[in-house]
Amino acid sequence: MADKVDNGIPCLSFIGIVDFSQEAKWLYITGSVSDLLGYEPHELEGRPSLELVHPDEMARVRKLHYDTIRQDKAACLVYLRMKHKNPHKGYILCGISRTIVHNVTVGSVSFANSSAKTFHNNSTAQEITVLSPSFPELQFRRWHDPAPMPPTPIPSALRLTPKSWRDGASPSSSPEPEEEEGLSYDPLPSQSFRTALILDRFSTHCTIMYKSNDLLITSNDSNADPRSFFDFVAKKDEARVRTWIETVKTWGVNERGQPSDGGFGFAGFTLLAEGRDHLYKHATPSVIRRGSGAPRHSSNLPVRPKNHKSNIRGPSSASRAIKTPTIIEPEVEGESLVVDAIFSAHSDGILVILRRSA
Predict the structure, then answer these.
(1) Which CATH number do you get for residue 39?
(2) Is it the case that residue 68 has pLDDT exceeding 70?
(3) Exposed e or buried b for every residue in 230-263, given b needs 16+ CB within 10 A?
């Protein structure tokens, strides 16, 4: 069947997370996959993502998946063809971003074509790989850019040990596969200390819809109890982080004006591991102060009888109004750490990758 580049496929994107197995099985997919490839998320979750890859590109994609994990890459793009559920639509040229996040690969899949938007996306990526032979013009990247998020050491106690290394061999001594064809391997070990968050793109609070692990944000299960992303940003950095997110949102709009993908933004800020809201709710009364206008109560004040009438003129109505207490958040924000971040916008979410700053 002939490849179909654009036959009514929306210029949208979806976020996907796959495991480290050689099949790269889907662990999580956002709903826009149905707009781009015709599948519902539940039809793909748990199945190999490589099933959707064009047969001519399968061997190279498998090797690329392996190398991405072993080299602990971040903010990389690859252009390849993926199968649409509707056989009449054939294979769709897609741009796939990928970043290794501890024990999963996190990224997005978007419709790709030769356009200014694709040029912009490429200009913000760390690495570009074009597997589809018909589109060499997509091979573009900035000259001599350093890696925005290089690998960082991870405690040995947190590394996963694959079956093939249990006899004493180390990851560094494991040989590279000699051939792309027939590449086979056990799941690879955990990599850098990174956490991925998927934020609600359409909420001013950027509610956390998904959290990949508890390595950096440790307060509670954000997947079960959605909280604002900004709750975990130090107050002094909140305005800047909001500006960055609004910026990548403006990048993440396709030629039709629809929310889509828009390249990578790199920045750093101070992260609060437990969040300000959590600390406020559990703060002791001594750290919550009331405003000067709050009424004071004392058990030593005389109690006026219910029907007692005083001939002393009371205060004016304006001064009688009781002022609402002013609640001030705790001054101490709790444990904090400086993090590097990758921000990227997609059709149904904002993807944020975090790691401790070196």
Answers:
(1) 3.30.450.20
(2) yes
(3) bbbbbeebeeebeebbeebbebbbbeeeebbbbb
